[in-house]
Amino acid sequence: MIEKEMELYPDDRIINLSRYLRLLLTLKKPEANATIQKEIEAGLKKGLKEEADYSSLEMLYGLAKLPEQAKLITTLKKEKFPAGKWIVNDAVQKFYGEKDPAKQKEILADLTQKVQTDSNWSSLRQSLPFLKQQQLSAYINKKDWTGFKTAVAESGITDKVVLASLYNSAAWRIQETDKNLDLAEEFTEFATSHAKTEWRSPSGTKPDALTDKQWRKQKESTYSMYADTYGMVMYKLGKYKKGFPYAKEAAITILKGQDPDQNNTYALLAEKVSPAKTYKKELEQFVRDGKSTGKIKEILKNTYVNK
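The structure corresponding to this sequence follows.
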């Protein structure tokens, strides 16, 4: 499809070239290497006139695993275009490379100010909400839950879809440590409640790239993932009856027993609240389908031993 698009719209070829070559490297590596070399030769023959020419050649040398050549082109680009678009890209890379949430917050504040005051940074405007979400995720990665709650409150984010995603990620990371589970419960209840409402009655505008069926399927998948988190948090809290319906809806009703991880959550809760004869056949089917885990097999073994 990408080849067809580049054929039909040769003027926009440069836009698709990077993703095309990366895909080619995955599917046909020998052919890809030869294609990359041809692109390098064509770029050099054409000549380096615009900043985009340098960026394209820089990308090609990177894909060809020629770091010294890529570094040289980068240096030349920065010398020839001291106020070029590369400044914005470098700033964004610095943001992603920073692991300290507080420092990342400072970088984001600086980027936001530049977008608001300098037209040269306007291309970054649409990315700011995503960068803000990434900055909040840095607190999750560091497991700084106090800082995370404070940062979310200060962020001004009102989009419940974004908040639910952040809260679900935080809840899952918290339950992995078996600490601060009350906080995990608070987060997962918000995320799961919102996702279920969206699944039943999608709000907002459907993305143009999705059909109605795909959009609803996406909402269903999101709810299934959040419900699985809810079930696991409830399991860790010992609130088995509260978590079981969500885990069952996610693993059995929605995914039809085809996801090992969600089957695992369901099995853990089912063992606590249901008679063995009720869930034994389901767990056996998980094993037959290759959709089980070591814990599922352990629970199944217990049912045989007890019987």
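Residues 86-139 form one domain.
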